[in-house]
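Long-time lurker, first post. I've been practising inverse folding by hand and with some scripts of my own, and I keep getting stuck on stretches where the structure tokens seem ambiguous. Below is the full token string for one chain I'm working on. Before anyone asks, I'm not after the true native sequence, just a reasonable design that respects the backbone. If someone could post their per-position residues I'd love to compare against what I wrote down in my notebook.
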């Protein structure tokens, strides 16, 4: 059986440092996830990523600090106000600090994420950030995963100690969500203008998304120059409005992760690639980032994901080790041996 010549040519160019075009990415995404071409795409993306990022893995930890019926009404999320089963709740500052300490005590975490609903109390969030920064002056990086915000708020967050923000214009934003795609993009530009690291993702991917849609959405991260690119599948939640559309396999997610990783060769600002939820196929297809999770999680049906879907730091380290990474990046320009991280 011969390898498709178009795919071979795209991969040869990538190995020489030329990022695939949109058309190239569409062609790669059109391959069946079980095809030998998809296997080659994943293998080449893996080799390029390991060289590009020095075979370093990164562990990030997210704390969902509150739960509420969310006006974002995302049809794939546990918290959408028209279908959520959750009662509102907010973690106290001491509960947040306990979770932050569990994530940071080993010294292996690169960044701590604080997640809220689409609507959030800005002043409280700033207080939380200041408290973490006061009690943990040297580590970790702090990243927010919150609703849309303006430049004044971005400056306020940065001045309080925030280093970055996760913000996405999702697949079918405005159709599968009640949010305005233009407002999402405005916030992304605000994040960049404020000098914060911008974390992006091709998400939430379901079986219904065509290659063209995936390409349009993932190239926003390339064109705007994200610090982190990623791919995330939509997790099947039985009570969510999109449950009937089902869920893609880890193998298809890994193929999309590989295409994201290759496309991001066109963005010098991209410093790492994530796969959500983390898995070994994705981590051997171009991704090098694993998230630990605690508190609220839009992909979970439990109030505290650390008791259910969420991984802890030790599980993240194990997964990176099993995927063949030999170092951890624990802060910008600070790396340590993964084996040493196990011994401590
Ligand atoms: S994904 Fe975020 S914005 Fe959308 S409903 Fe869930 S919490 Fe709200």
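-- Answer (accepted) --
I ran through it position by position. Result:
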């Amino acid at each position: 059986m011969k390898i498709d010549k178009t795919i071979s040519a795209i991969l040869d160019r990538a190995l020489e440092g030329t990022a695939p075009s949109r058309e190239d990415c569409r062609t790669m995404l059109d391959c069946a996830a079980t095809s030998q071409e998809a296997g080659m795409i994943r293998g080449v993306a893996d080799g390029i990523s390991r060289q590009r990022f020095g075979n370093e893995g990164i562990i990030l930890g997210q704390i969902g600090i509150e739960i509420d019926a969310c006006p974002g009404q995302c049809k794939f999320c546990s918290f959408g106000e028209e279908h959520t089963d959750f009662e509102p709740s907010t973690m106290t500052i001491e509960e947040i600090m306990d979770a932050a300490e569990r994530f940071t005590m080993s010294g292996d975490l690169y960044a701590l994420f604080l997640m809220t609903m689409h609507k959030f109390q800005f002043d409280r969030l700033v207080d939380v950030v200041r408290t973490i920064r006061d009690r943990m002056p040297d580590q970790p990086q702090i990243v927010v995963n919150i609703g849309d915000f303006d430049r004044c708020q971005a400056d306020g967050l940065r001045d309080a100690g925030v280093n970055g923000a996760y913000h996405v214009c999702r697949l079918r934003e405005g159709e599968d969500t009640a949010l305005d795609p233009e407002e999402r993009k405005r916030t992304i530009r605000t994040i960049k203008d404020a000098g914060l690291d911008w974390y992006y993702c091709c998400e939430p991917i379901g079986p219904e998304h065509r290659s063209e849609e995936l390409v349009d959405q993932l190239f926003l991260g390339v064109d705007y120059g994200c610090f982190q690119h990623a791919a995330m599948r939509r997790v099947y939640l039985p009570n969510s409005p999109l449950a009937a559309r089902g869920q893609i396999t880890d193998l298809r997610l890994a193929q999309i992760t590989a295409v994201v990783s290759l496309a991001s060769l066109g963005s010098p600002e991209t410093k790492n690639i994530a796969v959500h939820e983390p898995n070994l196929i994705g981590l051997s297809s171009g991704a090098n980032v694993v998230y630990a999770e605690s508190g609220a999680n839009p992909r979970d049906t439990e109030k505290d994901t650390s008791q259910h879907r969420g991984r802890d730091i030790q599980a993240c380290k194990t997964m990176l080790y099993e995927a063949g990474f030999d170092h951890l990046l624990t802060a910008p320009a600070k790396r340590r041996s993964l084996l040493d991280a196990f011994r401590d």
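A couple of notes from the structure itself: The CA atoms of residues 99 and 294 lie 7 Å apart. The mean pLDDT is 94. Happy to go over any region you disagree with.
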